[in-house]
């Protein structure tokens, strides 16, 4: 069954209620093409796939969810074309399975570290920074963007305008959920959920 939080018609802005969810999460700073970002995402996938295989052995059928990212900066102008991408701050996340408790999480981390110390030392260095975190957004406006990441701006602006039209204020970081693999999909076919938490003014 398709997750209703990850669906929608391209360009249509929907209002959704997002429950508290648990994630493998790691924070950092820099452009998505930086080595530190790549190692951080690699650490998330190492744990997410480790959880999938460990859970399957116990009878769980959880699949690895899409990569998600929260993006912010002290000066949001850096997200405009030509902005200082090295100033971008982010928290990258992959949803964790419900059965995973803190003890099992540390077991997964130890196994991932042992496996990657020699073949992927940059990922091994990032693994200690991954946390098992709950994230609650509540009321959000979101829309499905189809196309290159660089062309998200107009739809993000529409989401902000819609929040104002509904008498809502922005209440959390910009959230992107990557439904497509950029290594396997053409830029004009990329599907990304753009989500913005909102709250009533006052």
Any key phrases for this structure?
202 residues; alpha+beta; Multidrug-efflux Transporter 1 Regulator Bmrr, Chain A; 2 domains; nine-stranded antiparallel β-sheet; 4 helices; Reg_factor_effector_dom_sf; GyrI-like; GyrI-like small molecule binding domain-containing protein
How is this fold's topology laid out?
Layout: E1 14-18, E2 21-29, H1 35-57, E3 67-72, E4 89-95, H2 102-119, H3 121-126, E5 131-135, E6 138-146, H4 153-165, E7 168-170, E8 174-178, E9 191-200
Antiparallel strand pairs: 1-6, 2-4, 2-5, 3-4, 3-8, 6-9, 7-9, 8-9
Helix pairs in contact: 1-2
Protein name: GyrI-like small molecule binding domain-containing protein
Organism: Pararhodobacter marinus
InterPro entries: GyrI-like (IPR029442), Reg_factor_effector_dom_sf (IPR011256)
């Amino acid at each position: 069954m398709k997750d209703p939080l990850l669906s929608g018609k391209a360009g249509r802005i929907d209002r959704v209620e997002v429950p508290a969810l648990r994630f493998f999460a790691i924070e950092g700073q820099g452009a998505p093409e930086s080595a530190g970002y790549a190692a951080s995402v690699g650490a998330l996938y190492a744990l997410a796939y480790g959880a999938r295989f460990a859970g399957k052995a116990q009878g769980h059928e959880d699949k690895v969810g899409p990569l998600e990212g929260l993006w912010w900066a002290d000066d949001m102008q850096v997200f405009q074309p030509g902005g200082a991408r090295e100033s971008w701050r982010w928290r990258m996340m992959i949803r964790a399975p419900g059965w995973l408790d803190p003890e099992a999480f540390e077991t997964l981390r130890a196994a991932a570290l042992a496996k990657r110390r020699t073949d992927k030392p940059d990922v091994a260095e990032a693994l200690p920074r991954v946390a098992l975190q709950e994230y609650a957004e509540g009321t959000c406006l979101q829309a499905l963007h189809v196309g290159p990441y660089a062309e998200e701006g107009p739809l993000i602006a529409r989401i902000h305008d819609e929040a104002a039209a509904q008498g809502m204020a922005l209440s959390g970081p910009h959230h992107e959920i990557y439904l497509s693999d950029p290594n396997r999909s053409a830029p004009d076919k990329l599907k990304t959920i753009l989500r913005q938490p909102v709250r009533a003014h006052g």
